[in-house]
Fold:
Amino acid sequence: MQRKLNLHYGSIHGSYWMYFGVLGGFSSVFLLAKGYSNSEIGLILALANVVAVLIQPFLAELADRGRKSTIFIIMETITCINLILSTVMIFLGARSWLLTLAFMLCYSLMMANQPFVNAVNRRLEETGVKIAFGACRSVGSMTFAVICFFLGSVVEKLGATALPVIGDAVLILIMVSILYTYRTYREAAGAGGPEPRSAKRAGSHDHVAAPTQEITLREFIRDNRWFLIVSLGTLAIFIANSIPNTYMAQLVTSIGGDSVDVGRIFAVLAITEVPTMVLFDRIYRRVSSVTMLIVAAIAFIVWLGACAAVSSVGGLYLAQVVHFFSFPLFLPAMVRFIDENMREREAVKGQTLFTVTVTLGNMLASLIGGVILDFSGAHILMITGTLAAAIGAAIIIVSLKGKTRWSNNTRF
Structure:
């Protein structure tokens, strides 16, 4: 059952991050081809992230208060709406209000689904089955790499309209993956299916086995003030992280590359994530999540600095090697960090606050990045990203320094 559940959960990550590659990785390529300027692209992506930030807490509250199956229902519903919007975009022509709205909503819902993809990890472990989060997440990196490697060539040959067509196929895969994971989850939880939450999860921070009480967002913030400080650093880190991910097309073309190079660089970027995520659970047994977060924060500075320093496409390929120690270490370390320090009733809210922080970082990077590109160019944009990474790393290091003594049962 453990192998089966991990395989199915890995399939959710695999299909979700494939779609992220189509819609997120090639967002600039798609919108540029449709006649939008860099500033307009930045504004569209920023507004999309704002919408995602607004709906994420509502959906998290719904998941926390509902039955155990609610999180799967929310994920399927979001994916179904995405499928409808993606299909609509196939039949829309050049730059228009309808295309802007469809793309923006599609992007927002994709981002809104992300905390649930992560939070399902904890839901599945309630059955007593150990989920290898790093390995499952690495499946997403591998599928992201594969699809991006070919997308650049597809766009060069067939045009940007091929992107929503491919997106439709991937969205169907997501829906199937969620369905099969839920069925396996029900089998693991018992023939009668999961019951509403009541008992304390093994390893919870509550010392008395008692019914889990609901917690409001205000109570969550009050009880986790240290996490808010860490989140400020995370915000700056993901402003930096989002800049090359969102505007890779502009960076590549500024040094003489094309759409094929964009896809292949994204593929290299994703491949560098795989070893770190596959080995994450082994690393986690020896190194605390706090230490990993600090190391990853420093790696972000080096990675963005390398991207800013290159003057050729070949140099940009080499710069992605540093990515081994940045995002693929930071993401699972933060997921474990949250699990270590939050009660069961706070689980989805913790993951959601993390994703909201990431989304805000994406929003600010999109908004600022488009303007900087139009007025100063890609090189200045990468320097801006490096400065953001340095600020974020400083906040995270100051916030977490000396906290490596925390055990898995220590509160903030």
User: Anything to note?
Assistant: The radius of gyration is 20 Å. The chain is about 80% helix and 0% strand. Residues 97-125 form the longest helix (29 residues). Confidence is low (pLDDT under 50) at residues 191-212, 402-412.
